[in-house]
Design a protein that fits this description.
Layout (H helix, E strand, L loop, with lengths): L10 H25 L9 H25 L13 H15 L2 H18 L10 H18 L8 H13 L5 H22 L1 H6 L4 H18 L7 H27 L27 E8 L2 H14 E9 L2 E8 L2 H11 L1 E9 L18 E9 L2 H9 L3 E4 L8 H11 L1 E7 L6 H13 L3 E4 L5 H9 L7 H13 L2 E7 L4 E3 L2 E3 L4 E5 L2 E6 L2 H13 L5 E7 L6 H12 L4 E8 L5 E5 L1
Parallel strand pairs: 5-6, 5-7, 7-8, 14-15
Antiparallel strand pairs: 1-3, 1-4, 2-3, 9-12, 9-16, 10-11, 12-13, 14-16
Helix pairs in contact: 1-2, 1-3, 1-9, 1-10, 2-3, 2-4, 3-4, 4-5, 5-6, 5-7, 6-7, 6-9, 7-9, 11-12, 14-15, 16-17, 18-19
Length: 587
């Protein structure tokens, strides 16, 4: 269906823009990831931008859903949200979901625009002039959020877009077009501003992502999808080719051991920051949300700036997103604790075989033939998977891993062939992007679309590394597909479900991803879910208990199986802090 162009910047325009930006980044994600080969070979800028906008779009959709469903006492009025509602939701969603350096800067750009669009005054900022003001404020606030701005990055592209928009006269469509053109010109010029980009023959990855977001803005107000300039298209093609070549070289260097490492010339971080000289840069990326006052954040900036580089702190009104590259991850988190309350803490090692292992201190490790990489939702399951020989990526509640973390886990497995188990339906696109990146590095990767950790357990149980790769993948896929999965959790908010309307605090029983039971008691809900699953047959029940599961739930479920299903076996695992109270698998 053709997109109906928006005339003014209202709530529907915000919703449309977020949706189109997500689509545009989805198309360009692999290309952008391929450009992102310096300073850390994690190739995830495109994925980080995509996940950041996805969080913004989800927040906007939630606001619209609340208004559209609103009726009755205590609910919001039915209808359409205001521009302020939608813009604030967009900014908040981007802030809490920001990933990586580029995603954090993009979150600040969206926040800067929202501040202008929602400003109260005699003249509403919904026309072309208002859009120009919003883009200007966005570029300026993003630059202020970066500790040491560097030209030739997304900051340069944002500033050029704002300059072009300020000089435009007309409606929102006209201003958006000029901003996009200015961004394209600036993006094509980035190799001339940063020596590392010129040497690699690439344009800036974050800037390329911003161009995609601005293209979606043009489409929102004109209905037209603008084409990239010839200069940018040529640079993008060269960048993608460079990414494949450099990835292959990186794989070769990995086979040769740490002596093969060679960080280029130390210029330019992922986006907006200069890199470290000489030693290849800090070992860890640390990201967390922080509840803190402005004065405390000012002190935090100084502390973190002394600890590392690529420092970006965005947000305001008591909530901040902190991003920094450091060697001492603990010190970066401690600084956040001193400033306020950090949470959703994410620490990513840039490569166990890259950082602090220069000079051939360790002998090269020979690659194994095959490995399994799995995402697991709790520490207990991580131990179980590790004992079974898998390389694990821990997904804490509310903190799904980024594509770069999965790529790093594949590298860490150090195998020629890798079976990837995402164990979460929402990680399908992230895992697919990681698999594609790993394939460019010469690793054969098979992605089995497991939707739950219990399906991953079933797949791992039939894994045989000595048989042919294709046969092993087919067997693991079959085992996972034959395992029905369920979880018992607690509703965080009121919402519509397949089983009716639930309220915050209700106990939910989900079967194969859909809510099947709404109740008030965890054990009763789990028993109802288990009975429904076993009604279709089964031979083995797998129970994974979270830390918050009530006492006696496992015994109650095991007793129920013994009493009513004589031929069915039960196995129980402790999952740790896994989000769901109980995970259930039936094979």
């Amino acid at each position: 269906m053709a997109q109906v162009p928006q005339t003014f910047f209202d709530a529907l325009a915000v919703r449309t823009w977020c949706g189109l930006a997500l689509t545009a980044l989805g198309r360009a994600r692999e290309e952008i990831d391929a450009i992102n080969v310096y300073p850390v070979a994690d190739g995830d800028t495109g994925t980080n931008l995509y996940l950041t906008v996805e969080s913004a779009a989800t927040a906007v959709e939630a606001v619209f859903a609340g208004y559209e469903a609103g009726s009755g006492p205590g609910s919001v009025p039915a209808g359409r949200p205001s521009l302020a509602d939608a813009a604030r939701a967009m900014a908040h969603g981007a802030l809490i979901g920001a990933r990586g350096n580029s995603g954090t800067i993009l979150a600040q750009l969206l926040r800067g625009m929202a501040q202008v669009l929602t400003a109260e005054g005699e003249t509403p900022h919904t026309d072309g002039n208002g859009l120009g003001l919003a883009l200007r404020h966005a570029a300026d606030s993003a630059r202020q959020a970066v500790a040491h701005p560097v030209e030739g990055t997304v900051l340069s592209v944002a500033s050029a877009a704002a300059d072009a928009a300020e000089g435009a006269v007309g409606d929102c469509g006209t201003v958006a077009r000029e901003a996009y053109r200015g961004a394209c010109v600036a993006l094509a010029a980035t190799p001339g501003q940063l020596a590392v980009l010129k040497h690699a023959g690439v344009v800036d990855a974050g800037g390329r992502g911003l161009v995609a977001v601005l293209a979606a803005l043009v489409e929102t107000f004109t209905g037209e999808v603008p084409e990239l300039s010839a200069a940018v298209s040529a640079a993008a093609a060269a960048a993608a080719a460079h990414g494949r070549v450099e990835a292959a070289r990186a794989a070769d260097r990995a086979d040769d051991g740490p002596d093969g490492e060679d960080r280029e010339d130390g210029e330019g971080g992922e986006d907006g920051e200069g890199g470290e000289d000489g030693d290849g840069g800090p070992a860890f990326e640390v990201i967390y949300l922080l509840e803190a006052e402005d004065r405390a954040v000012a002190r935090l900036r100084q502390r973190l700036d002394a600890l590392g580089d690529s420092l970006v702190v965005v947000g305001g009104d008591g909530l901040w997103n902190v991003h920094v590259h450091v060697d001492d991850a603990g010190a970066a988190v401690e600084a956040g604790v001193e400033a306020g309350r950090p949470y959703r803490i994410r620490i990513t090692h840039f490569g166990a075989d890259d950082a602090h292992t220069r000079g051939g201190e360790r002998p090269p490790r020979e690659r194994v033939q095959r490995a399994v990489v799995a995402v697991v939702p709790g520490e207990g399951l991580a131990g179980l998977y590790t004992e079974a020989g898998a390389t694990t990526v821990l997904a804490r509640p509310g903190e799904p891993p980024a594509s770069g973390e999965l790529v790093e886990a594949v590298r860490r497995a150090h195998a020629r062939e890798v079976v990837l188990l995402p164990n979460d339906a929402d990680l399908r696109h992230t895992a697919a992007a990681a698999a594609e990146q790993a394939r460019t590095e010469g690793i054969r990767v098979a992605l089995i679309p497991t939707r739950s950790a219990v399906q991953g357990i079933a797949a791992l149980a039939v894994h045989e590394p000595d048989r042919r790769f294709d046969e092993d993948v087919v067997s693991m896929t079959s085992a996972a597909g034959a395992t029905r999965y369920a979880e018992v959790t607690v509703a965080e908010r009121q919402s519509w479900t397949m089983a009716g309307i639930c309220q915050a605090g209700d106990v939910l029983g989900l079967i194969d991803g859909d809510v099947a039971v709404i109740g008030s008691d965890v054990t009763s809900a789990a028993e109802t879910v288990l009975n429904r699953m076993l009604a279709a047959g089964g031979e083995l029940v797998t129970l994974v208990l979270g830390d918050e599961a009530p006492e006696g739930v496992a015994e109650r479920l095991e007793a129920r199986v013994r009493e009513a299903y004589l031929a069915v076996d039960t196995v129980v695992y402790r999952g740790g802090r896994q989000g769901a109270l109980v995970l259930i698998g039936v094979e």
